[in-house]
Every structure is written in structure tokens, then in C-alpha cells.
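FW: tagging you since you asked about this chain on Friday. Here's the raw sequence from the shared folder, copied in full. Didn't touch anything.
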Amino acid sequence: MALQLLLRDAAAMTTTITPTRTSRAHSVAPGEGERIWIVGDTMTLKATSESTGEGLVLLENLTTPGGGPPLHIHETEDEFWFVLDGKFEIHLGGELHTLGPGGFAFAPAGTVHNFRNVAETPSRVLVGFTPGRIDGFFRESGRPATDDGPAPPMDAEELARTMAAAPRYGLRVAGGQTGPS
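HL: got it, structure written out here
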């Protein structure tokens, strides 16, 4: 009888956790994912706001030598990088970090940052964002990659799309390409 009362009381104290977002399990094979040309780089989306219930956006960025975005700030997303190959300079606030394969960096929302490929060959870096809503910005600013060749350089049309989309995604350009040294 005491055990039944204990179990009944425990059941009454059980908390039900209800997820606040909808996501589904998924996977993306090597070489697959939506491809976008942006700032002269080729971005391949591996996890999107749709596939993660806005929990995460993860992309593989193939960056040309000297390539990468200008210094900028995300008001609502944290951003992180994991270098797959080559060498990248990553500016975080007023600090410069040079990372090779296996290197990791993190910038909380509100931090001025950028990355730049300092290798002599095109190099790859995984870039992630939490929460995951920024993929809409990439789609609006860039354009679908139409072949396996290198991405075209940024032009006036892409710059105009970028400046129009940035405020909708809490993104601000903060300065030049290289930032503080």
C-alpha cells in the first residue's frame, strides 16, 4: 500500500516537457546540400532553420584565397567556426586568431567578427549559427550556385541585395575586410 501511494504521488509530481520548436532528425551526405554563391565563396547548407526548427544553421564554406566576409555583427545569433582544411584568420572583437585544420572559434551575438582564408588554395570551414534563422539572409543576398566552378566575385547587385536583407536579419556591416590587427 505504501508503495502504491509513493508511486501515485510520484506520478502526480511528474513534469511534462513540451518542445518549443519543431525539428526532425536528418542527415546530409558529403557533397550534398543547398549551394549558394555569396561574397565570392561557395556555401553549402548542411543544417537549415527548416530542418532544425530554427535551432541551428550549419554550412560548409569553400573560401577562395583572401576571401571571406567583411567585419560584421549579428545581433541575435552566436556564430562558430571549425576549420576543415587550409588556414583562416578569424577576427573576434579586437583579437585576431589564426587557425588551421581542427581549429575552433566562437563569437557570441553582438561581437564584431569575420573570417578570411589566408591559405594559398581554396579552403573549407564549417560555420554554424544559433539560433538558426540566418540561412534566409544567405538565400536573399547570394544566388544559387549553378555549377561546380568557383563562385563569381561579389558584384553591385549582390551588394544591393545584401544591404537590403541585412536589417531584416539583425546583421550590420562593421568595417573593412581585415579588421583590427
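FW: The chain has one domain: 30-173.
HL: agreed, and Residues 41 and 63 are 5 Å apart (CA to CA).
FW: great, closing this out.
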